Amino acid sequence: MAHYLVFLEPRNGLVAGVSADVWHRVQEQLSSGDRITGFVAGAISPGALDVLQGSGTVYHALSGSPAVSPGTVLCRMLSEFVRKEGCTAVVMAATTAGKMLAPALAAALPASLLAGCTSGSLPEKVCRRYIHSGSVLAAYRPEAAIRIFLQGREHRSSPFRSMERPRYVVFQESLGPLQDAEPLIRTISASGSPEDISEAGIIVAGGRGMGDASRFSMLEELANLLGACVGASRSAVDEGWRPHSEQIGQTGKSVAPELYIACGISGAVQHLAGLASARTIVAINSDPYAPVFDVADYGIVGDVREVLPRLTDAIRDVLRKK
Ligand SMILES: Cc1cc2nc3c(=O)[nH]c(=O)nc-3n(C[C@H](O)[C@H](O)[C@H](O)COP(=O)(O)OP(=O)(O)OC[C@H]3O[C@@H](n4cnc5c(N)ncnc54)[C@H](O)[C@@H]3O)c2cc1C
Hints:
CATH topology of the largest domain: Rossmann fold
CATH architecture of the largest domain: 3-Layer(aba) Sandwich
Bound molecules: flavin-adenine dinucleotide
CATH class of the largest domain: Alpha Beta
Strand content: 15-25%
């Protein structure tokens, strides 16, 4: 029997969408006798937990730093909680905060840290993850009794639905002296895209084929129209055209949008590694043999400087008529 602890990351007073996804994926994989517990720390709005469906209990630590401070309050709270409650696995979203917290927690417990696992890994108690840019699915068998799974976003075939709602409990354990509670990270708001690209439903991404930084204004215009985020290939980031927070791929972010529009992006395996969960891919490229067309659902062969303004106008017309 497994006891899963899902770390629910607060974001702008709500539970981050990626954390809610992780919670529901764990719910889907519970076997008879398994338990699920959620843990959220810091200020959240009333009703923020209403997005969570299914069984289990969610503990809310009202005190403690909402920012993730590896080795300090949150890590200590979680490690004590895991030991006391006898949790066998901790599952968290592979966000920036999750990636900082998980190794500190693994060292504190100690536990095996399994990063980048597919969701099917949980019941099998192994970590299945794609390696070599997505060409091989490897299975890792962890040694420690407690496992920490860091999961990226994945598409589900249908949304998780349950009549049950988790029980809400305020976590009131004494945390001991808090002198090491200084937050190690502070939140700064990035300019550019309105939300975290890893949670975006639509992404309009540009690569070296955009030509220069100023042409990304075409992508911003299209993104504004569609309520989308702007993304970038590593080449565009290396050129200094876009911030690293927008980079998609092996050394950037993994994304799972409903619609991904790749503009002037060749489709290198390292870029595609971040796109495994994208539902519909549209590619605009002047080279009809660009590898991106091998994975695209719809391809437009043409120059982004001509195609993008026409596409944006056409979408604007459609939206105006609605
Ligand atoms: C270890 C490692 C990790 C990496 N991690 C990442 C990663 O996380 N993310 C990532 O993206 N890359 C990553 N890369 C780099 C990757 O291999 C590619 O170099 C990179 O993705 C290429 O970016 P690009 O497609 O924008 O540029 P290019 O490969 O230069 O492609 C530009 C494309 O634009 C097209 N084009 C040119 N002009 C126009 C025009 N006017 N209109 C339309 N199309 C045009 C061209 O036909 C071409 O297909 C990594 C590489 C390594 C070795």
